[in-house]
């Protein structure tokens, strides 16, 4: 038997040594990453500081901005977009008094990269938010991302709309969901918001604490762990935490209080709702009142919230000089509606990235306008800066374009739009006018190119009917992918 033990030792000892060495390396990596913290591009962080310091206080009459951002609201979830079961009279009135866009897109079919695009005007790979949503480092996915060297927060060197407006004399407030990082130094007040009330992540992620700036108002003490998520309101985590039935009402109350306490300075209110992302919780007062089930109850709560904010603007005499924008971070999840569009959240079909967008500015935007021009949430930042005559940063690509011409006169700003899958840093589809070319479709393991008509159901491949369109879009998409591969962060001074 001695020879057997010797053989086992000879075979097993190298395996044990290698395993111990791998564990040691992993521990050292964890220690190193925790000490170092998130990686920072110091030259572009310095450029950011210089840009913000050189901004001048606004001259003339700046306008107020209220940006209402829903979570997972689908293109077909509002009655003004054709929903026959969910009633949204307040948002519909907003559309009747302003502009409703039929072809507005999020930059991604999931929330973190879409929110990063909204705040920075840049495509997901620029901000290192592509390929996945952020999880708390406590969660195994968030921890895993960090150990792999991937960003788990918006990079410090990125410039947000809030930072630009803050330095230009605006009072800035975020109410609701952030989802761009949880570590100290990477929260809303670190990216241009004077104050913040809300949650760090989606309402299904554990732990879901309610914050006011850096203070925890309601601590999540539910029985959860590194794999915990509350996907279904019918099977909630046990324990004490936020009563999500009251979350929309709490956000609304905070928004109205913010409006009531404003002085003469212009303000930027970013109301980032947690719903209708799952789990769904309707308010106690209105549960069961919608013909659209629990999902309809939740959306109608959001509509009532919007109505209360519009009423406050009117009551306080702020209506005429306030641009109100209502949109969503991506398409509907399985509980919502994409309307006539194909696909839903997490897909680059139209239902995954085309979202409602309504804007009202009584003194500037003609009432009752409907636009079918293409635009994307990357356009919000350059549009606001264009309207305020603020120059863009010159050391980085801003992928969005000003759509002031669409808002004010109905003229288009885009020839092409790009779609970013969640499993890639490169665009997987391109749209030009009524045609869309998709490269990332999968059919039994085979990559399939697919040219479709946007006016149709995005189902029929028509590249044989329109070979010139196919070639033009294919060439442009290839060029865009190549340029992002060469310079994914979009730095202009490298």
Describe the model.
With about 500 residues, the chain is of the alpha/beta class. It has 2 domains: about 350 residues, Alkaline Phosphatase, subunit A; about 60 residues. It is about 30% helix and about 15% strand. The strands form 2 sheets. Strands 1, 2, 3, 4, 5, 6, 7, 8, 9, 10 and 11 form an 11-stranded mixed β-sheet that branches. The mean pLDDT is about 90.
Features:
single chain, 494 residues, alpha/beta, Alkaline Phosphatase, subunit A, 2 domains, four-stranded antiparallel sheet, globular
Short description:
By secondary structure, this protein is of the alpha/beta class.
How is this fold's topology laid out?
Layout lengths: L1 H35 L5 H12 L10 E7 L18 H8 L2 E7 L5 H10 L19 H8 L13 H7 L3 E7 L17 E5 L10 E3 L2 E4 L28 H14 L6 E6 L20 H23 L6 E7 L21 H4 E7 L8 E3 L3 E2 L3 H8 L16 H6 L7 E3 L9 E4 L2 E9 L2 E8 L13 H20 L8
Parallel strand pairs: 1-7, 1-8, 2-10, 2-11, 3-4, 3-7
Antiparallel strand pairs: 2-9, 4-5, 5-6, 8-9, 12-13, 13-14, 14-15
Helix pairs in contact: 7-8
Poorly predicted segments = none
**Name of the CATH first level of the largest domain:** Alpha Beta
Radius of gyration: 24 Å
Taken in chain order, the helices and strands follow as HHEHEHHHEEEEHEHEHEEEHHEEEEH
CATH homologous superfamily designation of the largest domain: Alkaline Phosphatase, subunit A
Task: Indicate the CATH architecture of the largest domain.
Answer: 3-Layer(aba) Sandwich
Q: N- to C-terminal separation?
A: 66 Å
The total number of structural domains is 2
What percent of the residues sit in helical stretches (DSSP H or I)? Answer: 25-40%
Instruction: Tell me the number of helical segments per DSSP (H or I, 4 or more residues long).
Output: 12
Amount of beta strand: 15-25%
Question: How many strands, what sense, and barrel or not for the largest sheet?
Answer: 11 strands, mixed
